[in-house]
Amino acid sequence: MTAYLLRRLLLVVPTLLGIIVINFALVQLAPGGPVEQMIAEIRGEGQALGRITGEGGGEVRAPQPASQGEGSSSYRGARGLDPEVVKEIERAFGFDKPAHVRFWEMLKGYATFDLGRSLFRDAPVWTLILEKLPVSVSLGLWSTLIIYLVSIPLGIRKAVRDGSRFDLWTSAVVLVGYAIPGFLFAVLLVVLFAGGSFVQWFPLRGLASSGSADWPFWQRALDYAWHVTLPTITLVIGGFAGLTMLTKNSFLEEINKQYVLTARAKGAGEGRILYGHVFRNAMLIIIAGFPAAFIGILFTGALLVEIIFSLDGLGLLGFEAAIRRDYPVMFGTLYVFTLLGLLMQIVSDFTYTLVDPRIDFEARR
Question: Cβ neighbours of residue 267 under 8 Å, at least 6 residues apart?
Fold first, then answer.
C-alpha cells in the first residue's frame, strides 16, 4: 500500500500541472482580461482611477485619460485613452511581460504555495481564501453529514422493503428531490421562509447576526444554526437522492448474493445477516466516497447557494474573481481546489483498505 500511495502522490504533480497549463492557455484566449476590465472602469467613470494594486502589492496611480488622440492599443475600449494609461495598467497587473514569463513566475510561486495577490482586492490570495473558507466548510460539513445520516438509513430501508408501498412513495420523493435544481429550491425557501412573499422565519444574509460576537456561546450557536438552516436544507435536498439510490442498489446487490442465502439456510436472523454480513460489503463504496463527496459539496455545490443566501464563501469568491477576471484569485483557487481534489482521491483509496482490508491495490495489475 505504501508504494501505491507514493506512486499516486507522484502522479499528483503532472496532473496538477496539466490542469493549470490548460486553464492558463484558455484564459489567455478569452477576451475581457483584467486590463480591459480596468479600462472599462476608467471609461465608465470618466475620470482617473484612484488606485490600482500591482502584483507586488504596491499601489500605482493611473494618469488621467487623454481627451485628444486616439491612441494605439490592442485592448478593447482603449481607443481615446492615452497609451501611457494602458501601459501603466499593464505594468501594475504584470501584463507587460510575455505570457510564458507570467506562467513561469506563477508556477514558481505555487511551488512554495505563494498564490500571489488579488488584482482588485489589494490582499494576498491566501488571505482571501482563509477568510472565506469557514463559510464554505460549514455548509459542506453539515450538508454532507446530514446527507449521509438521512440517505444511508433510507437506502437500507428501501432495499429491505424493495417493491413495497414504502419503497414506491419514497422513490417518488427521491426523484422529485433529484429533479429540482438546488438553486430553484433555494429560491423557493427564500420566498416561503425568508421574507419573500410569506413569512420571515430565517435570515437571508451571512452566518451570524450583527453584534453576535459579544453573545454567550450557546446563544451564538443557536444564532449560527438559525442562519445555516436554509442553505443546508438546500444542499441536502440536492444531494441526498443520489446517495439514497446508491445505498439501496448496493444493499440489493449484496442481499441477492450466495453468501446471504447460505446464512439464511443456516438459520441466521435477518438483523444479523443485514448488519453482520451485508452491511460491511455494501457500505464499502459509500463510506470510501465520503471525502470526495465532501470536497464536491464544498467547492462545487455551494456556489449558487452562497449567491442566493448572500454567504461570503469560496464559491462567491471564485465567481466574483471570474467576473472581474482577477487572475491570481482564479488560478489560486483552482490550484488549491484541484490539489485538494487529487489528494482526496488518494484518501478515498486509502479509506477503501480501512473499510475492507481484503482490498490490495498492490496486487492489482
Answer: none
Calculate the alpha carbon distances from 285 to 8, 33, 211 in Å: 19, 43, 44
Cα–Cα distance, 171 to 281 (Å, whole number): 23
**Do residues 155 and 285 make contact, with C-beta atoms less than 8 angstroms apart?**
no
Distance CA(99)–CA(6), nearest Å, equals: 33
Residue 69, pLDDT > 70, answer no
pTM of the model: 0.73
Q: What is the pLDDT of residues 313-328, one digit of tens each?
A: 887 888 888 888 888 8
Query: For residues 43 and 27, what is the distance between their CA atoms, to the nearest angstrom?
Result: 24
Residues 181, 238: contact at Cβ < 8 Å? Answer: yes
What is the DSSP track for 115-131?
Answer: --B-TTT-SBHHHHHHH
C-alpha cell at 86: 494602458
DSSP state of 194: B
Which residue's C-alpha cell is 513561469?
104
User: CA-to-CA distance for 228 and 205, rounded, in angstroms?
Assistant: 10
Q: How far lies 326's CA from each of 41, 54, 55, 111, 129, in Å? A: 14, 12, 11, 20, 14
* d(C-alpha 167, C-alpha 163), whole Å: 6
Does the pLDDT value for residue 50 go beyond 50? no
What is the tens place of the pLDDT at every residue in 85-131? 777 777 777 777 888 888 898 888 888 888 888 888 888 999 998 88
Closest CA to 19 of 340, 271, 355: 340
Q: Is residue 37 predicted with pLDDT exceeding 70?
A: yes
Q: Percentage of the chain surpassing pLDDT 70?
A: 81
Which amino acid type is present at position 128?
L
Q: Which residue has the higher pLDDT, 84 or 311?
A: 311
What is the rounded distance in angstroms from the CA atom of residue 325 to the CA atom of residue 120? 9
Task: Tell me 113's DSSP state.
Answer: T
Average pLDDT over residues 354-361: 65
Residues 6+ apart with CB under 8 A from 81: 39, 42, 43, 65, 66, 71, 73
